Amino acid sequence: MDMKTKAIEAELKQLPDGGAFLNRELSLLEFNRRVLAQAEDPSIPLLERLRFLCIVCSNLDEFFEVRVASLLAQHQFDRAQGGLPDHLAATLERASAECRHLIARQYSLFNNEIHPQLAENGIHLLRRGDRNAAQRAWVKQFFDREVRPLLTPIGLDPAHPFPRVINKSLNFIVELEGKDAFGRGTAIAIMKAPRVLPRVIRLPDELSDKKGASYCLLSSVIQAHMADLFTGREVVSYSQFRVTRNSDLWVDEEEVKNLRQALQSELHSRNYGFAVRLEVGRACPEHLSAFLLDQFNIDRSRLFTVDGPVNLGRLLEVVNTNNQPELKFPPFVAGYPPRLAAPDIFATLRKHDVLLHHPYETFQPVIDFIQCAANDPCVVAIKQTIYRAGMNSELMEALIAAARRGKEVTVIVELMARFDEEANINWAEKLEQAGAQVVYGVVGLKTHAKMALVLRREPQGLRRYAHLGTGNYNPTTAKFYTDFGLLTADADLTADVNEVFIHLTSMTRPKQLTSIWLAPFSLQKELVRAIRNEAELARHGKPGRIVAKMNSLTDESVIKALYEASEAGVRIDLVVRGACSLRPGVPGLSENIKVRSIVGRFLEHTRVFYFRNNLKHDIWLSSADWMNRNLFRRVEIAFPIRSPALKRRVMREGLHPYLKDNVNAWELASDGRYRRRKPRGKQKPLSAQQTLMDMLGGANHPAKENEHGTDPVAPR
C-alpha cells in the first residue's frame, strides 16, 4: 500500500462510518430532512408548508414499505444462512433513530406552528373539544347516519381472532370493562375505519362561530362516539393505530405464464405483506401497544408513538380543496414553445429538433404529437413505452383512438411500476381491446425508458419521428416534475429508437446503436468511459469538467470513476436531488467534487450529463439515475443533444441556474449532512426554479437559443 493510499484511508477513518460511500438509506432520510425544512420555512405560503409536511409523511411511508422492508428481509435471510448481518442491523437502528427524530419534528411543527396558523387564517381543524354545541350535534348526526352503519367492532375471543389489517389503514384498539351480552369479559376490541369515508370532513359553515372553513378528522368523529358502540360496557382506553407493511410485489417471473394475470392476483396481497412499522396515538397505553406489536410481530424499535393523527398525510385534502390563493404559491402558467406554433408538427420537426422543458413549458406538445399521429392518415404506426401514465390520460386515449383507426400501435407497458400497477393493467386491457399490440417489456427488467416513435409515410418513403424524455408520460405530474423532452426527426437517433423497440418486443439482442446508450447493455460502460475520458484529458494538462444532474447517485462503479477523475484534477459538480452515496470533499479522494441538492416548489426530476470532452461539450439526457438498479436491472436510455443551440439551452436552463442557486440549494458535506446555501455578502438571492419560471413561463417565453457560451462554469 503506497503512502497516498494510506493517507486517504486514514482520512476516511476520521469520517462517520469510516468509508468512501455514504449509506443510501440514511441519505434518503437526509432528503426528507430537506423536504421538512420547506415545511418549516416561514417564508413559504402556509398551505404549501402543510403540503410539504404531507409529502414527508408519504415519503416515510414508502421508505418503510420498500427500503426498511427490504433491509428486514435481507437481515432475516442472512441470519437464516448463518451470516453476519451486523451492518444491516446497524443501518436499521440508525434509520429508526433518524425516522424518530424526523417524525417528532413533523408533529411538533404541526401542533405548534402550522395548526395554530391555519386557524389564524380561517382554516379550523377542530379537535373534539374545539367543536361548539351546534357542531357537536351535526357530528353526532353524521356519525349515526354515515359512520356507525359501516363500523364493525370485533371483540376478540377464540371465535373472533385478531382481524387482518390492511396496509396503512386507520384502525382503533379499544380496551373494555364489564361483561358482554353473553356474560363474558372480552377485554379488547378492534375496529377498522371504513375506507369508503373521507378522512377529512368539512363542517357546515353556518354552524361555525368562527370565520372561515371548519374541518374535523374521521378519527376524531369515531373517537367522540366510541362509547356508543359498546352498549353496556365501559371503554377504559383506546387508541388509533396504523400498520405499514412490505409493499414490494413479487412474482416468479421464471414460472409465471401471464405477467398481467399474476400481478392482478399479487396486487391484493400487497395489502397484507409482513408488517414493518406500527404507529399509535400518544395516549395509547403501554400494554395495548405491546399487544399490537405481538399481533403484528413487530420489534419495539419500529413502534412510533405520535402526538396527533397517525397519518398527517391525509391533511393534503385540506390543501387541495382550499381556495385561499394567498396561502399558496402564486399561480404559474407554463409557456408553449413558439417553434411549435405552426399547425404541422411533423413539418416543424423535419426542419429542426424541439427541446421541451417541463413544467416551465407545457406538456401539451407531447400530447399533440401523439394526437396528431393518431389523426394523421399518413401515419402508419406508433410505438410507445408507458411507465406511469396515471388513471386519466389524453395521451393513452389517443393511442387507443389510433389503434381503432387501424394504425399499427405497439405499447410497452411496464406492469411492475411500483404503486402504478393497477392503472397500468387497466390501460393495457383497454389498449388490447382497441386492437393495439401490448407487451410488458423484458422479464426481470423494468422498462423505464421514455420513448415514443411515429412512422409516417411520405413522398420519400417512411420517415420516423420520436419523442424522448427524462420523465413519465403523465400530464398531471408534468405540471410539477422538472423534466426535459426532445422531439426529433433525426434519422440516426430515430433509427436507434426503432431498434430499441424491436429489442423490447422480440427480446433479441439490439443491433449496434450509434446514438443511444442503452441499459443494461452499454449505459454504465459509456458513463464510466466518459468520466475516465475527462480524467485522461486532465492528466494531459487539459481542463476536465463534468456536470451532472439526477435524482439519485448510489452506483459504486460510477462513484469510483468519479473519485478517480477527481484525483486526476477534473472539476465535478453534481446536482443530486435525493440519495447520494458519494462522499464529496475528502482530500486525496474527492476534493474536486461538489454535490448539491435542490428542493423547491417543483420536484427536480431531470437527468442531464455534461462532459467537456476537449471542447466538444457532450450533453446527454436520460431516463436513468446513476444507480445500480437503473444501470443493470432496468431498460433505460440516454440520448445526446446534438444541436449547438439546444446544448446551450440545456446548459442555460438545466445546469447553470442550479449551480448558482442560493435559495433552495443544499450542499453535501463529507460527513453526509447537508448545509443550506444562503446568499453571501452582497449576493442577490437566486432560485433556479423561480429563474426558469420567469424565463419560460406563459407569454414571457423567449426561446432564445443562441445566448451564452457552451462551457458551464459553476461558482466554486
Description:
The chain has 716 residues and is an alpha/beta fold. It has 3 domains: 22-327, polyphosphate kinase like, CATH 3.30.1840.10; 338-515, Endonuclease Chain A (Endonuclease, Chain A); 518-700, Endonuclease Chain A (Endonuclease, Chain A, 2-Layer Sandwich), CATH 3.30.870.10. Helix content is 38%, strand content 20%. Strands 14, 18, 19, 20, 21, 23, 24, 25, 26 and 27 form a 10-stranded mixed sheet that branches. Strands 10, 11, 12, 13, 15, 16, 17 and 22 form an 8-stranded mixed sheet that branches.
Layout of helices and strands, plus pairs?
Blueprint: H1 3-13, H2 24-40, H3 46-80, H4 86-120, E1 123-125, H5 133-147, E2 154-155, E3 171-177, E4 188-192, E5 200-202, E6 213-217, H6 218-224, E7 234-245, H7 259-270, E8 275-281, H8 286-296, E9 303-306, H9 316-321, H10 345-351, E10 354-358, H11 364-375, E11 379-386, H12 394-404, E12 408-413, H13 421-434, E13 437-439, E14 446-447, E15 450-458, E16 461-469, E17 481-488, H14 491-506, E18 517-519, H15 523-539, E19 545-550, H16 556-567, E20 571-576, E21 593-598, E22 603-604, E23 608-611, E24 618-622, H17 628-632, E25 634-640, H18 644-660, E26 665-668, E27 674-676, H19 688-696
Parallel strand pairs: 1-6, 8-9, 11-12, 12-13, 14-25, 17-22, 19-20, 20-21
Antiparallel strand pairs: 2-4, 3-4, 3-7, 5-6, 7-8, 10-17, 11-15, 15-16, 16-17, 18-25, 19-23, 21-26, 23-24, 24-25, 26-27
